[in-house]
Design brief:
By secondary structure, the chain is α/β, with parallel strands linked by helices. It is 37% helix and 17% strand. It is built from twelve helices and eleven strands. Helix 5 runs parallel beside helix 6. It is globular and about 50 Å long.
Length: 331
């Protein structure tokens, strides 16, 4: 199958209906395998997946370099999204410290352009809100970069409704990237209505609940050192037991449709609106092919209702991040 296109925002950004989150190719979920990662990136293109998500903080820096190598001879076929805004010293990220001063934005963009081996970034996100710098400054600086041709579209990651409005008033926001899935419904009360009102695209990351909705998960302590699931509260203790039970509806519907559980979770997102483009992460071709095949799965109103009700806000046990990471989220 070939993916249909979807529009993110009202400024002309069109991408395949399912993107590819590339973080895991460089960190967080086991050892890297560059050859398989590049083969996965190229396979995505063959299947109509042209939307690739990275960040200067992934590695740090090595994930952007990987995409630069993978796409240097096919840049015109891909839509590259990257994120900036954390602080780095001596090649390492300084905890969760942010830096979105205009001069830092410009320096970060030059670094990303070099690593991605390109002269423009298609979609540039602020990775996390910088509480020391007015969000208008970030939006305005990226607006200048758009006019200079170094960036095409503006996005934000994990900002709340009020700041989204403030940024959009300075320069049109094409996409909001946030965690949203059957597993994590935090956007629904306040953020989703504003996204729809302003005509902004939504790019859900971790649409499979960091793998929980795909099946085959283990308890936190059973993952190797360096795997972020070891510190994920939802994989720990009694939370894990409760969440296995809560997710059962996804597996039941998948079995009834002859599909995989992760495909049901992705199909649910796609059925939530044409402005939604999930970016499941993988570094393997087999998983990529399964994810893209989810675009062909139909869920009827009854399926959607069952999923909505069984995994309503509050049914999943535990925060989605440890406390120190939750403190960086603008809600």
């Amino acid at each position: 199958m070939t993916l249909n296109k979807r529009r993110l925002g009202n400024q002309g950004l069109e991408v395949g209906a399912i993107g590819l989150g590339c973080m895991g190719m460089s960190q967080s979920y086991g050892p890297a395998d560059e050859a398989e990662s590049i083969a996965t990136l190229h396979r995505a293109l063959e299947l109509g997946g042209d939307f690739f998500d990275t960040a200067e903080g992934y590695g740090p820096f090595t994930n952007e370099e990987l995409l630069g190598r993978a796409f240097r001879d096919r840049r015109d076929q891909v839509i590259l999204a990257t994120k900036i805004g954390f602080r780095f010293e001596n090649g390492r990220q300084v905890g969760a410290e942010t830096d979105s001063r205009p001069e830092s934005i410009r320096k970060a963009v030059e670094g990303s352009l070099k690593r991605l081996q390109t002269d423009h970034i298609d979609l540039l996100y602020q990775h996390r809100l910088d509480r020391k710098v007015p969000i208008e400054d970030f939006a305005g600086t990226v607006g200048d970069l758009v006019r200079e041709g170094k960036v095409r579209f503006l996005g934000f990651s994990e900002i709340g409704a009020a700041n989204l409005r403030r940024a959009h008033a300075v320069h049109p926001v094409s996409a909001l990237q946030s965690e949203y899935s059957l597993w994590e419904r935090n956007l629904e009360p306040d953020v989703l209505p504003v996204v729809e009102e302003l005509g902004i695209g939504l790019v859900p990351f971790c649409p499979l609940g960091r793998g929980f909705l795909a099946g085959g998960v283990k308890r936190a302590e059973d993952y190797p050192e360096g795997d972020t699931r070891r510190i994920d509260p939802r994989y720990q203790g009694a939370n894990y037991d409760a969440n296995v039970k809560a997710a059962q509806i996804v597996f039941d519907i998948a079995k009834a449709k002859g599909a995989k559980p992760g495909q049901i979770a992705l199909a649910w997102l796609l059925h939530k609106g044409d402005h939604i483009v999930p970016i499941p992460g993988t570094k393997r071709r087999t998983h990529l092919e399964d994810n893209i095949a989810a675009a062909a799965i139909h869920l009827d109103a009854g399926d959607m209702s069952k999923l909505d009700d069984a995994l309503a806000a509050g049914t999943i046990s535990g925060n989605r991040y440890p406390d120190f990471v939750m403190a960086t989220i603008d809600r």
